[in-house]
Amino acid sequence: MAAMIHLGLLLPLVLAGAGSGPGEFINIERLSPRVILAYWPGIDRRCNLTAIQSQKGLVIIDTEASPRVMAPIKAKIEQAFHRTDWAYVINTHAHDNHCSGNSLFKGATIIGHANLAADMQWLIDRQAMPERKRQSIDQFTTIIRDLRAALPLYAANRMYTRLIQSDLIFYDLFVQDLQQGYEVVKPTLAFADRYTLDLGDLTLELIFFGKGHSNSDILIYIPQERILVTGAIAYQQYRVPEIGEESHLEDVHRFIAVLDGLLADNVKIDHVIPGHSVRLTRAVLPPIRDYYQRMLTEVQAARKQGLTLDETTRLLTLRAKFPAFRDPPSRTYGYDHQERSVRNLWRILDEEQLQPKAEKARD
């Protein structure tokens, strides 16, 4: 079956005039002599990888969805830097397109938050549990089938045709790794709050954001380059800042405090690198902080007034005050995130309200 899928991809790619390999689809943006942004674009798929060269070796922030997907990106970065001495891999969190290519960087120190190793276990389980593995392969094989069917429909649109070709190769490599299995490499250096990585001629400031989008989200600030890498914290549009099922009140306060710290006058930021969209600027950060703060303030006020969760959700001003964070279209990823975040915050405040009563009962 696997051979049929992969050989079947070749025909539409050849007919559409695709080139000889995946490398032609990978984009490299030079941010400075020391920093590169690399990504493999698709129709609605992009994961930004930040590569840094330093006196102590090369560093990569995030490693895409699988080793076969990461390999041509790694090669393009090495070609751009004219060196291959990988010293560090940093994972911003444990979603597969941020940490599944770690195994390619033999000998490099893998760095992540203290929660990252546990968060990555799902990647091992996806391969080890037959039903989960089958479901994943079926899901992405269906995507490949749909892309192949769409290719002739867009023959007159060169840009869209190229994106489909790019996606076909990307998902084909990804499915190969799912079928054959790949090594999931967890962090060898973990930190709880902050960690400074000294690279000789520059430093990386790694900051835990709090449990929200995942349990292990971190940001990386490079002061000498005035660059902030945000992982899944900042986006170009639609993505609502998240309060997750495992978030606590201390996490919500941390979200605000971390962003406050990054917005201090002495923190210089020219480039904000999001996880899945074009490069942004420092201007995207205040609305994220203010969104969390307003949600917390309004929900706390509504509870004091005795309003229900449904009443509070209807009365919130978040959509009006933060149009960039409006929910995306129905059936799109993130569609219900605003309601989910409010629901999770409500649960957090319920827990906080019950905690003193429980402590008093124990006394």
Can you put this structure into words, describing what you see?
The protein is of the alpha/beta class and 363 residues long. The chain folds into two domains: 1-233, 4-Layer Sandwich (Metallo-beta-lactamase, Chain A), CATH 3.60.15.10; 283-362, no CATH class. Helices cover 44% and strands 17% of the residues. It is built from twelve helices and twelve strands. A seven-stranded mixed sheet has the order 1-2-3-4-5-6-7, covered by helices on one side. A five-stranded mixed sheet has the order 8-9-10-11-12, with no helix packed on it. α5 crosses α6 and α6 packs antiparallel against α7 (158-180).
CATH class of the largest domain equals: Alpha Beta
**What is the name of the CATH topology of the largest domain?**
Metallo-beta-lactamase, Chain A
Order of strands in the sheet with the most strands? 1-2-3-4-5-6-7
Radius of gyration: 22 Å
The total of beta strands comes to 12
The residue ranges in which pLDDT falls below 50 over 5 or more consecutive positions are 1-18
Structural class by helix and strand composition = alpha/beta
Q: Give the helix proportion (percent range).
A: 40-55%
Mean pLDDT, as a whole number?
91
CATH superfamily of the largest domain: Ribonuclease Z/Hydroxyacylglutathione hydrolase-like
Distance between the termini: 64 Å
